[in-house]
Amino acid sequence: MTVYFIGAGPGDPELLTKKAERVIGECPVCLYAGSLVPAEVVACAPKGALVMDTAPMTLDETHAVIREAHGKGQDVARVHSGDPSLYGAIAEQIRRLRADGIDYRIIPGVPAYAAAAAALGQELTVPEVAQSIVLTRVSMKSTSMPDGETLENFARTRTTLAIHLGVRALREIERVLTPHYGADCPVVVAYRVGWPDQMFIRGTLADIRLKVRDEKITRTALILVGPVLGEISDFTESALYDPAQPHVLRPKATVSG
Q: Which of 15, 183, 205, 235 lies 20 to 30 A from 48 at CA?
């Protein structure tokens, strides 16, 4: 018996990987986070499977279901939004599984920041503009952040930020980031990426809070911050395709003419 932690992607059922779809289709028990994972994602569960929305359940309650399945020798598909390695709350589940001697596997999924960039039609690592992305969150009412992992510290790098669970903290985000990025720094708030009602709100650190307030968005949003999100056309092209830059698969430089 195996528990499969499956990344379902941000919402679009077509972003489910072939492996994830196959495993869900083979498991007689399927537990999914219904507040973040559409029911359509787990519609491929086999006929007669136990399919449960864990949104109203506690960790101990979901683990009890897994233990019962383990006793019956049934595999379990534990379906999470995005990629389970990012804010998937799987570490505490794995700790319980290990304590009970229950086998598990992790199947990665498309993270929200990647799906958002795709929907926006842009690269997040443009040469000489941005080459790093910080995936972080704000505390608010959730678990506190480790010492040193503060927006202030990340802001000093001026790299692209992908801020999770922070749409209710936009005033604080604006206050902390503006001295480092500037009030005119581009910001995108990506709401329910991959769902039919997805929305992308573009603005700057100076005005994004009011724009989000006007749309009455209070949850299920990712905040992207950084110069790379602006209209950039004069960036340096990557050396990867530069004919004057040989590499292992193109060992000789070429000269166009």
A: 15
CA distance 251 to 257: 19
Residue 217 contacts residue 169 (beta carbons within 8 Å): no
Structure tokens at 210: 């009011």
Q: What is the pLDDT of residues 87-120, one digit of tens each?
A: 999 999 999 999 999 999 999 999 999 999 999 9
Q: Based on the domain organization, do 194 and 214 belong to the same domain?
A: yes
Written as six digits, the tokens of 58 are: 């506690």
Q: What is the 3-state secondary structure (H, E, C) of 218-257?
A: CCCEEEEECHHHCCCCCCCCCHHHCCCCCECCECCCCCCC
Question: How many domains in the chain?
Answer: 2
pLDDT tens per residue, range 28-64: 999 999 999 999 999 999 999 999 999 999 999 999 9
> Is the domain of 83 the same as that of 136?
no
Tell me the CATH number at 41.
Answer: 3.40.1010.10
Do 143 and 202 lie in a common domain? Answer: yes
Which tokens is 117 given? 């960039």
One domain, residues 134 and 199: yes
pTM recorded for the entire structure: 0.87
Q: Which residues contact 126 (CB under 8 A, 6 or more apart)?
A: 228, 232, 235
* Strand pairing class (199-204; 186-191): antiparallel
Task: Round to whole Å and give the CA distance between 124 and 118.
Answer: 10
